[in-house]
Design a protein that fits this description.
CATH superfamily of one domain: Aminohydrolase, alpha-helical knob region
Distance between the termini: 66 Å
Shape: globular
CATH class of one domain: Mainly Alpha
Number of strands: 27
CATH topology of one domain: Penicillin amidase (Acylase) alpha subunit, N-terminal domain
Amino acid sequence: MKRLAKILGILAAVIAVVAVINIAANSQWWAQQESIAAPETEYDVVIHRDSWGVPHILGETDADASFGLAYAHAEDDFATIQELIATARGRAGELTGAPGAGQDYVWHLFDVSADVEARYETDISPEARAVIEAYADGLNLYASEHPEELRLRGLFPVSGQDIATGFAFTSPFFFGIDRTLGALVASEDPPRAGERANERGSNAFAVAPSRNPDGATMLVVNSHQPWTGPVAWYEAHMTSNEGLDVMGGLFPGAPVPLIGHNRTIGWANTVNRPDLIDVYELTLNEDGDAYRFDGEWLPLESRRIWLHVRMGPLVLPVPETVYRSVHGPVIVNDNGAFAIRYGGIGEIRQVEQYYRLTRATNFEEWQEVMRMQAIPATNFIYADAEGHIARFYNARFPNRAEGYDWRGVLPGDTSDTLWTENAPFEQIPFLIDPEAGYIFDANSTPWIATAAEDNLDPADYSALLGIETNETNRMMRIVELMTDIGPIDWPALREIKYDMGYSQQSAAGSYLRQIAGLNFEPGEMSDAQQLLAEWDWNLDGEGRADALAAAILRSVMMAAYRGDPLPDPQLTFAGAVHFLRDNHGRIDPPLSEVLRLRRGDTDVAITGGPDALRAVYWGEPQDGVFVGNAGDSYIMEITWNSEGAVSARSVHQFGAATTRPDSRHYADQVPMFAAMEMKPTWFDADDLEANIVCTYRPGETAETADGTPCPR
């Protein structure tokens, strides 16, 4: 027994030592001891910060400007950028635990890094590679100067291939592949459409000179995104002496703005959800290591991988196996083996297409860039200085064969279902310069995007494309508000964009009618039912029933948006009533007490709601109130006057220093955003000059005009 006790004691001591080493090696402290070399390449770039903290970056070349953008963004949000890099390396689990490990599993499953490694030098142009690699160098410089902010050892230096991999890996998530993967991993049937599982939505409007009383062209950029995290917007202005001059919004890890405008063209993005994902059921042999295809047995490729998962202070290795067939990634579950193929599979040029968009100068050049189709999904709403407006239902549609149910699970034993080419560009819905003079989009079917007589005819497009037919409340409200509208100036367009109403033809209408039909005994529930019957169908904060309606619609509108079954009306209604009574002592508190926007010490009321044009979403209540966390975020109004000169206004839901609580720009735009007001962007150098607060080069001390340290 003494010998056994001694052995167990030694074993416990060894385990303890290993645990201590593991904790130390994976601690942030250890990461901060790492010495990161500054990049050897020299870049010629200056960063101007305006009075709102927005960076205006001037480089000698486009690559210089990208270097400066990376450095400026790292100053404002280095923590999130590091998460993006970890995701692009398949190391997210080391930072965020189980959720990140799930991403790492998909990273290995898709094997995007192998595609990038194989084709980075051949598929991406030298000009785009220079921009991508300069961006990586900007991050490396910041990391070398700020080791105290490093979160994970071995993450730097970053390469251009890491940036390209990050874009290629995340692209299919924008058209719903996470829902397909989630269902298959859980041994459930995959969804029958490209449905997304989150609140990413968007609005966009374009108005031609023919509808504006001053002959101006107008464009509203209004993407709906989470307010924090890897797909939260950041505003920047990039210029170079090579001709780059673009301002707009971008995500962490992006070397150029993804939405916005240059001198002569502008574009907005809205998420679309065409059916770009096909699932194939494989027929396996008895050993499970081969599948039948065209009468032959082909080996089922398999690779052993290790997921490194943070569990408290420890990071533990977890073994998994990933599979692949000729179709693409394969998931083996309780029901069999299922292969996945999706639009844009193997594509790595997403960053290049965005970069080329920033350099396009007219409609013809913009269309030529769009022909790349490297961005596999996402609508583009376009406007330009010449007065052109357009809505392009951008998607990398598979060229599918007739005779199969492409929204269901396909037979994986025949090459007849294995598409290898894309549908021709000309088959994609493209609405150009409608006679009505306006275009809109609200994550809805492309068949409703302007006046009824100018809409595209769905009969002209193949059903094999899998084009969505859904109609959001936002789309319905636009149609209701723009029917019979006269001249469209900015006040008229803003009234539509910031509308907080709900169409009675939407999911909200049918759902509330079900609640109205419920039978209650006299009392609190019947009183609440009567209150709801008086609601004016608008979450503008002016009605007694607004808080009750908001509490009901939160889960209802998101379920409708995703295509999920709606929750039980009686349970939802009762939950809303009890929530208001328990937390506010009444069923009719002002919406201003219930719906809030909080950032740091700033806490203000906000109006709007889920799937309203003034979109606001929230999660579980905090301290008895709903705290917005997504929806309207970075908003931009762009105008080309009758002479073709461009100007713009914008607002961010928080401010430029998105994750820097000590900065004065951490929440300085919150009151303006809540009040639905905007600031000038100072796109022209002459306008910017008087509003520059500080100027510096990356790596140098930021100073004001009189040489004092820059207030950040």
